[in-house]
Amino acid sequence: MRAEGIETVRRILCVFPRYTSSFGTFEYAYPLTDGVQAFMPPQGLLLIAAYLPVNWPVRFIDENIRAATKEDFEWAEAVFVSGMHIQRQQMNDICRRAHAFDLAVAIGGPSVSACPDYYPAFDYLHVGELGDATDDLIGRLARDPSRPDHQVVLTTKDRVAMTDFPIPAYELAEVKKYFLGSIQYSSGCPYQCEFCDIPGLYGRNPRLKSPEQIVAELDKLRECGVTGSVYFVDDNFIGNRKAALDLLPHLIEWQKRTGYVMRLACEATLNIAKRPEILEKMREAFFVTIFCGIETPDPDALKAMHKDHNMMVPILEGVHTINSYGMEVVSGIIMGLDTDKPETGDALLAFVDESQIPLLTINLLQALPKTPLWDRLEREGRLLEEDGSRDSNVAFLLPYDQVVDSWRKCMAVAYAPEKLYARYQYQCDYTYAQRLKVPVTPEQKSWANIKRGLIMLRNIFWKVGVLGDYRRVFWKFALGRLRRGDIEGLIASSMIAHHLIMFARAASVGQQSASNYSIRLREASVPAE
Ligand code: SF4
């Protein structure tokens, strides 16, 4: 559904801000690809773009791909911006640039919804999800696109049902320039982990699209040229288990109909390991990766952060079960918890070895607004001002330098090339071997796809296999893959491994932030106009 009943025409420029360099956006892998420049198409802005009145021309720019230009701003009558806390500086910069053209600028999305006071310069703050605030904003701009005298805050009280969401305007994004495709089925999570802002922002009772909407979105993504991997950005894919079970047969049908053109990935709680009926269907739908917020292998810490549901099965057993359905586990890990001890880093490294998980996003604890953690630390006087000098706004119980040193050591050891490639080797031998054997599709056999693969292989062989200083480790892995004819596995593992190795090296000497969420302003790069 779209906003309706608006006669006036307005030209809207939607600008998605650059990401600050971070572990989870894989930018070190991009030079090995055939032209990838950004992580995932942003769901929020593309959804708003699709919701705008049908007669409103929309231009979408992702500044991770190219900066909005003078011509873009001159074309527009109003500018929409959306993003996360980590993009705060860049969002404020877009506002400044748009104001230089005297354009009204509206901001929506998770960051402003949690922290409206981060954005004093914007003309319109859209707080909350798609709903009556969105209609109000559109109505105001239709009546008068000029900048209001003072900031207007519009807060959604009545949300649009997700079953009424239009298909995000994927056609406006240069989808081939993204590392992954993205799609959303549900929003919200029933749990209340202390550090997480999802329940506060999106509720504990997951809202859902219909399976038919998801099938239509997959068709559209495919039409727009997405092949390869598509990530369900849902906060917790099994937040509503029945809904997941309702959707999966549709995904299986879609994959069969299209010849398994897409590899699927999602985020889910580790207790998915207790649901073989879901895991089996996910295998059939060709899910190949699940991101699980394991957070810590320490049961006391899980209890303290109210993440007991991670202990419904022993963690290593849970990871192994998921692997047995052909799905690699990607894990979130947090350091700097109140329960951490001097030996926590070593325990974590032992867990990395035992779990054989190749990719773990290891972050320092950061308190996000609208979380129980934020409230508790505020009460305890342990919330620190973010002045760019620290990697976290939390006053840890252990000395800060000790926590950061431990994080750096963990990054350096976990992502030493020998260790990382050994974990990937395990995944090839065990996990990937359990995957559905899918047919080779005409798309995969097409010259365009073969050319793509050849470009990536050339880049990997040259930049890693010839110029890379860990080439001996690489070739040991690569020759094994080549002997088995597993070119796809070789490309995928090598690209991710390269990012992890390079990022971890920068991190271990203090050149990368220890938190994906902290706002280290000095790190943020803003593109030139
Ligand atoms: S399970 Fe995940 S999404 Fe849900 S509250 Fe915990 S961290 Fe947040």
What does this structure look like?
This protein is an alpha/beta fold. The protein is about 40% helix and about 15% strand. The protein contains 19 helices and 14 strands. Helix 4 links the parallel strand 4 and strand 5 (about 125). Helix 8 (about 240-260) runs parallel beside helix 9 (about 275-285). The radius of gyration is 23 Å and the shape is globular. Mean pLDDT is about 90; it is low at about 515-529. The structure holds iron/sulfur cluster. Iron/sulfur cluster binds near residues 191, 193 and 269. Iron/sulfur cluster binds near residues 189, 193, 196 and 235.
Which helices and strands occur, and which strands form pairs?
Layout: E1 12-16, H1 43-51, E2 58-62, H2 70-75, E3 78-82, H3 88-99, E4 104-108, H4 110-114, E5 124-127, H5 132-143, E6 152-155, E7 181-183, E8 186-187, H6 198-202, E9 207-208, H7 211-223, E10 228-232, H8 241-258, E11 262-267, H9 276-284, E12 287-295, H10 299-304, H11 315-324, E13 328-335, H12 344-355, E14 360-364, H13 372-379, H14 400-414, H15 417-431, H16 442-445, H17 447-466, H18 471-483, H19 487-508
Parallel strand pairs: 1-2, 1-3, 3-4, 4-5, 5-6, 7-10, 10-11, 11-12, 12-13, 13-14
Antiparallel strand pairs: 8-9
Helix pairs in contact: 7-8, 8-9, 12-14, 14-19, 15-19, 17-19, 18-19
The site of iron/sulfur cluster has 11 residues, from helix 6.
